[in-house]
Write a structure and sequence with these properties.
The structure is a single chain. The chain is α/β, with parallel strands linked by helices and about 200 residues long. Helices cover about 20% and strands about 25% of the residues. The protein has helices spanning about 75-80, 95-110, 110-115, 130-140, 195-200, and strands at about 1-5, 20, 60-65, 70-75, 85-90, 120-125, 145-150, 170-175, 180-185. A five-stranded mixed beta sheet has the order 7-6-5-8-9. A two-stranded antiparallel sheet has the order 1-2. The longest helix has 13 residues, at about 95-110. It starts with a strand and ends with a helix. About 25% of the residues are buried.
């Protein structure tokens, strides 16, 4: 199909101009078929592989917390573990149900038994800031038998230890800075990182 366009009326001072074009030139030939390729499905994994393992020495890091006098303090991995047995356990977040109802209270309840087995330090680590940890401690009416430590920037949890941006739940037994036991939970599970589980290993 062809069409002719005359431009004489548009250009009064010029001679009449005309040109023609074929509409078929604008369309692909009938022999051409268009094939759409569907992109391959993307697969995402929620699994996080920890970079710390049994036998490793814990990397140095600094935590913050409020002491019994309400003063903001800092402590380090060395302070917590050097020359002593320590249990460090982590929760995904302060005020979350399993952490508030089972995980943290279990270590508070069993702190005397754990210390009778030679554990000198029991500390709960979370990526919440120190003010949130202080409020959580007050809400649960917990004393200093268990330290509530803030790893607010994830300097310990995310980078050297590799336990996720928002920490996975775990409990580890550390002797003089070296990891002896690491009970690392999958997803939101709470199956073998409790105080009773750690007592059985001492």
């Amino acid at each position: 199909m062809a069409a002719t366009l005359k431009m004489g009326r548009l250009l009064p001072s010029a001679k009449s101009l005309s040109f023609s074009f074929s509409a078929s030139a604008l369309l692909p030939p009938a022999s051409v078929s268009l094939k759409l390729r569907h992109p391959k499905s993307l697969r995402f994994s929620t699994a996080i592989s920890a970079t710390i393992a049994v036998g490793d020495k814990l990397p140095e890091s600094t935590f913050s917390y409020f002491d019994s006098a309400g003063e903001l303090q800092t402590t380090t991995v060395s302070d917590l573990t050097k020359g002593k047995k320590a249990i460090l356990f982590a929760v995904p977040g302060a005020f979350t149900p399993t952490c508030s109802q089972k995980h943290l209270p279990g270590f508070v309840e069993k702190s005397g038994e754990l210390k009778a087995k030679g554990v000198e330090t029991i500390a709960c680590i979370s990526v919440n800031d120190a003010f949130v940890m202080k409020a959580w401690k007050a809400d649960l009416k917990i004393d200093d038998r268990v330290l509530l430590l803030s790893d607010g920037n994830g300097n310990f949890t995310n980078k050297p230890v590799g336990l996720g941006v928002r920490s996975r739940r775990y409990a580890m037994l550390v002797d003089d800075g070296v990891v002896k036991v690491l009970n690392l939970e999958e997803g939101g599970a709470f199956t073998f990182s409790g105080a009773e589980d750690m007592l059985k290993l001492l």
